[in-house]
Amino acid sequence: MPRQRARTIVLVIGTRPEAIKMAPLIRALQRAPWARCRVLLTGQHRELVDSVLEFFEIKPHIDLDFMRLALPLTQLACRLTKAIARAFDHEKPDLVLAQGDTTSVLATALACACRRVPFGHVEAGLRSHSLAAPFPEEVNRVVTSHLATIHFAPTLSARLNLTREGIDPAAIHVTGNPVIDALLTAAQREVALPVSLDSAKRLVLVTAHRRDSFGEPLVRICQAVGELHERFSDVEFLWPVHPNPSVKPVVASLLSPLSRVRLCEPLAYGEFVAAMKRAAIILTDSGGVQEEAPALAKPVLVLREESERPEAIDFGVAKLVGRDPCVIVEETSRLLGDADAYRTMARGMSPYGDGHAARRIVALVRNLLGESNRPAVPRRARSRPSQRRRARLSPPC
After folding, report:
1. Collapsing DSSP states into helix, strand and coil, what is residue 321?
2. Hey, what domains does the chain have and what are their CATH numbers?
């Protein structure tokens, strides 16, 4: 009887958050005897992604190495789409998976459409309902949804967003978010922080790196941190500063003189989870942190005017505070000074998953590929060299 081939599934990763959220799915597919799992890096966040993959003991197979290119969004999207499509020509995937709302995800969806390859969108259906905020993320996820074959929505509200846009309900599956799978795995490890902190002081963890925070909004966030530093002598601040030149010089110039503000390089994933565990409050414009912190019983004040993750806000474990220094200071001060208000937000409950999203997604993928009713392929039948391959870039569009 001829041996049936394993199904090739390519998982595309561009940024650190994508690496974190795709890691549980990669590991689950690597254990599936019917799947040949291939990891493709676009290379947009080279060092940040590599550290996450190392944490989860994942070795990529294809590396497009776009980190070295500083391109406008239109050129980046065009060149990424071409390079990813060429990689598909070599790999001949039965299915491609990507997560989130970056240019890498949009380029992956376009490449799949051009090559007629089924595409599965992880974390599908998130919406701010404004194409301008955040930009380009909202545009990316709306377009991606209309190119995807199967949608893995983290919540019921994400599913509702998709059905309102005319997406076939039969193609939408509520799975939870694999970010919680990754978080629960990482939180079990005891990881030392590379920054010396005063154990007698409460810690406020701060992150801000989104494009819509650049410029005056970031200055205002820094002003709020400065005011809180002045008000609370028993509080220390930790800010892992994103290396983007629109972020790092601004934060350093405004906050480095303050004695209890610890500015550091971006933390490795395990270190950042350790920092969240250590923190009393988290101030962030990050989408992923809005999902992670509630599961660790940490109140989150969201430094944005809107959020595509309303569940945590509706649940009362996160709150939108924008970038107005007065509002940021008022809401942070309330949590630092009012024990009842703090307990209300620090409930240790997340609306984004139970740690089993990857298992659900793999089961749905297996069913989509028609693997649920046939014998498993022995692992030895699908062994291939796993060295990283660099794809040659095409000329600019």
Report:
1. coil
2. 7-177+353-390 (3.40.50.2000), 202-345 (3.40.50.2000)
Token pair, residue 279, equals 């923190």
Q: Estimate to the nearest angstrom the gap between the alpha carbon of 4 and the chain centroid.
A: 35
Handedness of CA 259, 263, 268, 269 (dihedral sign): positive
Single out the residue of 258, 248, 192 nearest to residue 223, CA to CA: 258
The DSSP annotation for 223-251 comes to HHHHHHHHH-TTEEEEEE----TTTHHHH
Task: Write out the catalytic residue numbers.
Answer: 101, 123, 137, 209, 211, 242
Do 35 and 6 meet the contact criterion of CB atoms below 8 Å apart?
Answer: yes
β partners of residue 282: 205, 300
Tens of pLDDT, residues 320-355: 999 999 999 999 999 999 999 999 999 888 899 999
Residue linked to tokens 């630092």: 336
Closest by CA to 207, choosing from 288, 134, 138, is 288
Model-level pTM?
0.86
In the chain, the amino acid numbered 264 is C
Tell me how crowded residue 269 is: count the other CB atoms within 10 A of its CB.
24
- pLDDT tens string 50-68: 989 999 999 999 999 876 6
